[in-house]
Each structure stands twice: as structure tokens, then as C-alpha cells.
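Fill in residues.
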């Protein structure tokens, strides 16, 4: 992997955000939610996060888990975005806290 998800791997409705330092991000096209991997400051691990915005007024970041390498972070982000799509498709409106809880329980996202 090249440090960013390949365009063909990114789920429908998601796009890569510009790289900002040690951060990889996929954002949903509706602008309300993003999945991120941020390099931990103390170790070589990457922290996975869910970021949601409400009407561009404020943003909340929720920790989801950690992975050991940048390549795993890229792979986990793609799986994470797919999981968000599936949850939204199954349930319609789903709260960010519910997304985090379901992702942490799921075996599809390696966190």
C-alpha cells in the first residue's frame, strides 16, 4: 500500500481527504462523518477515530481502536467506511456512538 487507500477500494459515497501530517482520512460525501487514522505520539501505532459534524457548527471525535502499522490503518479505514455504509443502510439514521459500538464489536474492522 502507498499510505493512502486505493481509489478502487474506497466504498461508494466516500472520498480521500488530503493527507495532513500523520493522519489518513476518508470522508463521506455528505460531509457529516469521516473515519480517520492518526499516528499515536508515543508508539508506532495508529489510532482509529470517527469524526462527525453537525451543521458545520461543531465536530466530535470518538476513538474506535488502534492498529499496529500504517498499512493496517489504511486497510482498517476502508473496512470502517464499509461498516458505516452497512449500518446506515440497515438502520437509516444511526448515531455516531452506535457506530463506534458496532465497529468495536465487529470482526470486519481489525481494531
Amino acid at each position: 500500500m502507498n499510505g493512502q487507500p486505493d481509489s478502487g477500494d474506497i466504498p461508494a459515497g466516500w472520498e480521500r481527504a488530503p493527507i495532513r501530517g500523520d493522519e489518513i482520512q476518508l470522508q463521506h460525501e455528505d460531509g457529516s462523518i469521516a473515519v480517520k487514522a492518526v499516528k499515536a505520539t508515543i508508539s508506532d501505532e495508529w489510532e482509529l477515530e470517527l469524526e462527525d459534524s453537525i451543521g458545520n457548527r461543531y465536530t466530535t471525535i470518538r476513538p474506535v481502536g488502534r492498529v499496529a502499522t500504517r498499512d493496517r490503518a489504511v486497510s482498517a479505514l476502508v473496512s470502517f467506511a464499509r461498516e458505516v455504509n452497512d449500518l446506515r443502510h440497515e438502520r437509516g439514521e444511526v448515531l455516531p456512538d452506535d457506530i463506534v459500538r458496532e465497529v468495536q464489536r465487529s470482526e470486519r474492522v481489525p481494531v
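The two ends are 19 Å apart (CA to CA).
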